[in-house]
Amino acid sequence: MGYAAIQESFEEAVCIKITALMANVALIAPLLGPLVGAAWIHVLPWEGMFVLFAALAAISFFGLQRAMPETATRIGEKLSLKELGRDYKLVLKNGRFVAGALALGFVSLP
């Protein structure tokens, strides 16, 4: 879940608490990940980690779906392919955006 979604969804005080929690998890995860992974391999086969990841992803998905407030302002509005195409055309006309997007894509190439 991104920081922008948190800032749009919650009051400032709650947003600060959630952001701090996310920062703590991001700091602790690289320390605990290898330790938990090594313990897992001693108890169960490593292929079982994929099942664990799928279960955690499902819990995260349904938890967010249940607890995350809706931020869309135009609920119930019909999807217009014409307007969608116009918006994409407008974005793709922005040369700085296209150059930045391509540069980010090419950076990850071997």
Automatic annotation (TrEMBL):
InterPro entries: MFS_dom, MFS_trans_sf. GO terms for molecular function: transmembrane transporter activity. PROSITE patterns: MFS. The chain crosses the membrane at residues 21-43, 49-69. Residues 1-110 form the Major facilitator superfamily (MFS) profile domain. Keywords: Cell membrane, Membrane, Transmembrane, Transmembrane helix. SUPFAM superfamilies: MFS general substrate transporter. This is Multidrug translocase mdfA. It comes from Shigella dysenteriae WRSd3. The lineage of its organism: Bacteria, Pseudomonadati, Pseudomonadota, Gammaproteobacteria, Enterobacterales.
